[in-house]
User: Fold this.
Amino acid sequence: MDPQGPVLVEGPVEIALDDGTVVRSDRFRVAVCTCRRSRTYPWCDTSHRPRERAASPNEDGTSR
Ligand code: FES
Assistant:
């Protein structure tokens, strides 16, 4: 299990957010984001995964 990854829970599930909003998912299994990087928080969108490094060692994609 990825310690930075989501918590998988059986749905349907309701989650109360910090601002008091309650969101619901009717999926049979729900991935709840624990890293807070998800753009669809509180649902995991895989943003917790480390970025793949580009094939080029240079950040700007140029070759030396
Ligand atoms: S746990 Fe997957 S995006 Fe946060």
